[in-house]
Amino acid sequence: MPIALDESITDPAAAELALTQGAADAFVLKLQRLGGLDRLLAVARLGRAHGVPSVVTSTMETTVGITVGLHAAALVQTPGLDSGLATSSFFADNLAEPAEVFDGCLSLPPGAGLGIALA
Question: How far apart are alpha carbons 45 and 52 in whole angstroms?
Fold first, then answer.
């Protein structure tokens, strides 16, 4: 039974511990829980070096947080594994329009920066 570590991956040290103990077959990375894009990328690099794939998911985030997570997923996502990023539409009030899910997928928004317009 493959094991995916989710919220126990809080920083690169936790990922390194899981890797040295052979405790993970996959990492489920939450940008906000890890504390930023740089830390998420560091954990994904550690996993990749040990043959452990990564997926990017979210906690409940506004469109801004989800869009940053979507950019992160585009950088580190292992093909064939699904992300969990389509949650910003659950908010009654949001900072921007949520990305539309089409055929089970979110697309990166066009434009510079995050590519979204704040409301």
Answer: 9
Cα–Cα distance for residue pair 91/4, rounded to 1 Å: 28
Give the pair of three-digit tokens for residue 118. 């704040």
CA-to-CA distance for 60 and 66, rounded, in angstroms? 9
- Contact between 47 and 27 (Cβ < 8 Å): yes
Three-state SS at 29:
strand
Are 70 and 115 within 8 A, CB to CB?
no
- Of residues 79, 90, 84, the one with CA closest to residue 31: 84
Contacts of 49 (CB under 8 A, 6+ apart): none
Crossing angle of the two packed helices 12-20 and 37-49, in degrees rounded to 10? 10
pLDDT band at 69 (very low <50, low <70, confident <90, very high): very high
Give the pLDDT of residue 27: 95
